[in-house]
Amino acid sequence: MDIGNISKKVDLSEGEWVDEIPDLDGIRLKVRSTNYKPFRTATAGLARRSGKKLNTDEGVADFTVATGKPLAEHILTDWDGVTENGKPLKFDRKKALAILTADDDYGIGNKFRRGVEWAGDQVADRIAERAKEAAGN
Q1: Where are the domains of the chain?
Q2: Which 3 state secondary structure label does DSSP give 32?
Q3: Which contiguous run of DSSP H or E holds residue 28?
Q4: What is the model's pTM?
């Protein structure tokens, strides 16, 4: 084990680009790790407040939509390939929040939430692998 990196901090705030996201063809997202502390704090609080409601299908659906806000605030930092009415849409935090909290009939909000979370998990895995390599394991 190489302890030379013991005092180096891992920067989770910048985010990384992730391509080939399931169900989001042609879109790439710049996201932070789902291990980003402000996100984990926000979602833990959300789960606590949801309590027993999660034992119902409606409660699970409400919780899923509610996770859109922490995803917008803490995980998603940019996008490429998102369009609105056929025109490229520049990243906008308010628009991201609207998409990530949408409970629409077409399932766009749900697909986007799943995609952002999946991409954040990929970044978490990348960081874990880099940490493992830095530790010499």
Answers
A1: 10-135
A2: coil
A3: strand 28-31
A4: 0.79
